[in-house]
TrEMBL record:
CDD domains: GlyDH-like. NAD(+) binds at residues 93-97, 115-118, 124, 126, 130. This is Uncharacterized oxidoreductase. Coiled coil: none annotated. Its cofactor is Zn(2+). Residues 13-152 form the Alcohol dehydrogenase iron-type/glycerol dehydrogenase GldA domain.
């Protein structure tokens, strides 16, 4: 077993309705004097009724689409020109990733206010980077964890249900990817045991609570189902990599996601939707049809994609499968942590899943 570096959590995390009322107190405790707030148009609209001015000057800046190196440079320059000594990121995964990366580049502490429960970006000390066309480039793990995460369920209640659905898909993958990375280890450290317990929690809680949490969004009510699902996605999901390090990051499902990003038809689908499809391909590669069968009823209830047609790929499937396989099996991809031989094996796994889904219809 390789050594593990634990970056298990932000320094401060709180979750309750009205948590943003703590901002003045928390910022005073840190003795901050001026901040930069990064946000999207929709995310600021969602947070503004709950936002409490912290008692120090704030400079507001909107983000531009994806987390790219160019965008992070732009935000870092804005932090420098505004003489900010801390950064607040308000929004979904892309905004939060930009905030973390800009904080790292500027050597500034970061406060994150998630407006979506679509991934664990608020928790993890890393950012996922894309190019200007939306293709996956890389992810970078930072040496310092986020200072503070403040999660208000009453902000999440107004978020589009498809983001929660994608968050469920992305987080269920935590178990399957960590499991395949650690199954053959003869012994495990305590930190890895914690990571695997969190990963199992990700799967079990979301399969049990996911549909009820989606119903909460549709009825506009903050319920224990919604809060448990949101904290599982953000906190438990982040703890898998935080305590498991390379054993709790990514493997097959996320490589399939990365391959899917090379098809323009998939760009309108969310990260977690593509990862959810990647789980099924990973299980096909592992020759675990019984586990696919276990997941399919939940996928149907939640509306998660089970085949390429449900990701917008309705023609040219053979060519699309080749594109996915080649990109998913590019040198350095995490799918090789599963002992995959190459793009031919990945192509066969995708074809196997597509055939299985045809039999299901």
């Amino acid at each position: 077993m390789k050594p593990i570096q634990v970056q298990g959590a932000p320094a401060i995390y709180q979750c309750f309705e009205g948590v943003l009322e703590l901002l003045p107190e928390k910022i005073a405790e840190q003795q901050f004097s001026q901040g930069l707030v990064i946000h999207g148009e929709k995310s600021w609209k969602a947070v503004q009724p709950h936002f409490v001015e912290p008692g120090v000057p704030l400079h507001y800046i909107g983000y531009n689409k994806d987390c790219t190196h160019e965008e992070v440079n732009r935000i870092s320059l804005a932090a420098a020109s505004s003489k900010a000594d801390f950064i607040i990121g308000i929004g979904g995964g892309k905004v939060l990733d930009i905030a973390k990366a800009a904080g790292h580049k500027s050597d500034l502490p970061v406060i994150l206010i998630p407006t979506l429960a679509s991934n664990c970006a608020a928790w993890t000390p890393l950012s996922v980077f894309y190019d200007d066309k939306g293709n996956f480039l890389e992810y970078i793990i930072f040496p310092r964890s986020t200072l503070m995460v403040l999660l208000d369920p009453s902000i999440l209640i107004d978020s589009p249900p498809e983001f929660l659905r994608a968050g469920i898909g992305d987080t269920i993958a935590k178990w399957y990817e960590a499991d395949v990375l650690t199954r053959r280890l003869s012994s495990k450290s305590v930190s890895l045991d914690i990571a695997l317990q969190a990963a199992r929690l990700c799967r079990d809680v979301l399969l049990e609570e996911g549909t009820k949490a989606m119903e909460s969004l549709k009825t506009g009510s903050v319920t224990t189902h919604l809060v448990r699902a949101a904290e599982t996605i953000i906190m438990a999901g982040g703890m898998v990599g935080g305590f498991g390090d390379h054993y709790g990051r990514i493997s097959g499902a996320h490589s399939i996601h990365n391959g899917l990003t090379h098809l323009p038809e998939t760009h309108r689908y969310l990260h977690g939707d593509k990862v959810a499809y990647g789980i099924l391909v990973q299980l096909a590669l592992e020759q675990r049809p019984e586990e696919i069968a276990l997941l399919l009823p939940h996928y149907r209830e939640l509306g998660l994609p089970k085949c390429l047609a449900e990701l917008g790929i309705t023609s040219g499937k053979q060519e699309a499968m080749g594109t996915i396989a080649e990109a998913a099996a590019a040198p350095g991809e995490s799918i090789y942590l599963m002992d995959i031989s190459g793009k031919e094996e990945v192509y066969a796994g995708i074809a196997q899943l597509e055939h299985l889904m045809q039999q299901e219809t």
